[in-house]
Specification:
Layout: E1 7-11, H1 16-26, E2 33-37, E3 43-47, E4 55-59, H2 67-81, E5 86-91, H3 110-121, E6 125-129, E7 144-147, H4 150-160, E8 165-169, H5 175-185, E9 188-198, E10 201-208, E11 215-223, H6 227-238, E12 243-251, H7 257-262, E13 269-272, E14 285-288, H8 291-302
Parallel strand pairs: 1-4, 4-5, 5-6, 6-7, 8-9, 8-11, 11-12, 12-13, 13-14
Antiparallel strand pairs: 2-3, 9-10
Length: 313
């Protein structure tokens, strides 16, 4: 650790399990927070130790409900008012990232709003993983460390030792990601082209590329209802694929996602623990931990070391 500055780690309540793993890998226990609750549902997080002049890491994925984001904002404000020198906000899953542009009249840009809120609260640095769109980094006027789960997934794929490996993107937007994975793995690339009439509902899907007798891995940044992935898996198998797996950084898994995956032609679905999984709802879903990745980068940031070797894709 740095000789000149102490560091402290704190976590929001819903990200506590991942934060415990990060803290263990970092080599330092999580700091204690006392939550005062009011009868109307309001809450007040109070840091239980002095952070004056220190670097504070606040660990929180900002998935719904919105109380998770509010809890983080209150913790940032508490650290700022307690005279922390640096407030690094570690957000494994950055909520509202799908609202990254104004794509219809009178729509908000939620990802930018969250960036403004985090900065206004007092964050001095952001650390996150696989943003829905890379350009969200530009919504901040403070440094952003944008990590990639590919550093975890690529090794897992290599250890599968699959013959005739092909990387697939479930949509056109993920083509670049799939191409980068394929480049590291020496694999072919195919792309599923989907047409949507409304959010979370895929009307039609077409395949660009050949998958006959191939072991296919679908790569995405998140799985929400899993409708797109399951439909892509059906098409890949129809076109002669030998097997289909899916890998996505963030397992949002809302609605009927667990049932969709369990009843699909997907052999397995791999996510990270950026969002807590519900236990026992599907035997096909497996989470790989991103704790070591975040802990390593947190140490490097605290010690003012380069983190460039942590970026595969």
């Amino acid at each position: 650790m740095s000789d000149h500055q102490a560091s402290y780690l704190f976590s929001t309540r819903t990200s506590h399990e991942l934060a415990e793993k990060i803290a263990q890998s970092y080599g330092q226990p999580l700091g204690k927070i006392n939550f005062q609750h009011f009868s109307d549902g309001e809450f007040e997080p109070v840091l239980e130790q002095s952070v004056r002049g220190a670097r504070v890491f606040l660990i929180a994925s900002t998935f719904p409900p919105a109380d998770n984001l509010l809890e983080l904002l209150l913790m940032i404000d508490a650290a700022k008012r307690a005279s922390a020198k640096n407030i690094t906000v570690v957000i494994p899953y950055y909520g509202l990232a799908r609202q990254d542009r104004k794509d219809k009249p009178r729509a908000p840009i939620g990802a930018k709003l969250v960036a403004n809120l985090l900065t206004a609260a007092g964050a001095t640095r952001i650390m996150t993983m696989d943003l829905h769109a890379d350009q969200i980094q530009g919504f901040f006027e403070i440094p952003v460390d944008h990590l990639y789960a590919s550093t975890i997934f690529v090794n897992y794929i290599r250890n599968l030792n699959l013959e005739n490996l092909t990387i697939a993107s479930p949509d056109m937007g993920g083509a670049k990601r799939a191409k980068n994975y394929a480049g590291h793995l020496g694999a072919d690339v195919v792309i599923a082209y989907k047409e949507r009439k409304k959010a979370n509902v895929v009307e039609e899907m077409f395949l660009i590329g050949d998958v006959k007798d191939k072991n296919v891995i679908l790569i995405d940044d998140m799985i929400d209802t899993a409708g797109t992935l399951c439909k892509a898996a059906d098409i890949l198998m129809e076109k002669g694929a030998r097997s289909v797996r899916a890998m996505a950084t963030h397992g949002v898994l809302s609605g009927k996602a667990y049932d969709n995956i369990e009843n699909s032609q997907l052999l397995e679905v791999i996510v990270t623990d950026s969002i807590p999984l519900k236990e026992g709802l599907s035997s096909k879903i497996r989470a790989l931990s991103c704790a070591d990745l975040f802990a390593d980068v947190m140490k490097m940031v605290h010690e003012h070391k380069s983190i460039s070797d942590k970026f595969i894709i």
